[in-house]
Amino acid sequence: MAELQEVQITEEKPLLPGQTPEVAKTHSVETPYGSVTFTVYGTPKPKRPAILTYHDVGLNYKSCFQPLFQFGDMQEIIQNFVRVHVDAPGMEDGAPVFPVGYQYPSLDQLADMIPCILQYLNFSTIIGIGVGAGAYILSRYALNHQDSVEGLVLINIDPNAKGWMDWAAHKLTGLTSSISEMILGHLFSQEELSGNSELIQKYRNTITHAPNLENIVLYWNSYNNRRDLNFERGGDITLKCPVMLVVGDQAPHEDAVVECNSKLDPIQTSFLKMADSGGQPQLTQPGKLTEAIKYFLQGMGYMASSCMTRLSRSRTASLTSAASFDGNRSRSRTLSQSSESGTLPSGPPGHTMEVSC
Question: Is it true that domain 25-305 has CATH number 3.40.50.1820?
Answer without folding.
Answer: yes
